[in-house]
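Course assignment 3, question 2. Fill in each field.
Student: A.L.
Task: Predict the tertiary structure for the chain below.
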Amino acid sequence: MTVVINIVVSVAVIILLQLVGMIIFNLITPFKDMEELKKGNVAVGLALGGKFMSTAIILGVAAYTNSSIWFMMLWFAIGYVCLLAAYFIFDLLTPGFKISEQLIKGNTAVGTMLFAVYVGFAFAISSLII
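Answer field:
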């Protein structure tokens, strides 16, 4: 019975952390992701999918490598902060244009690149989680 309780609690914490991660990502963008999705903005959809995948990758590795929920949460937080830093660094390294403006315009090339940046950094960051 203890195993079942541990699994249920772990799944609940994972879902909560994934939601918190997505809310934080939505807060750092100067536009409303869901409103852009309703408009059919594919670029924002790609970027949002990249956000979800990247947080899930980091969260999955944090859960897999830690038997304690507290350590899982700690390593997810560390990995997530690194992921946020990667977004801001990527934004700084593209001085010719603002990423958020290109996403609002529906630039799918930028959305695809941002998806790959999120997922790529998530794999790199998750390899550091112990």
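Instructor remarks: The CA atoms of residues 61 and 127 lie 8 Å apart. The chain has one domain: 2-126.
Grade: pending
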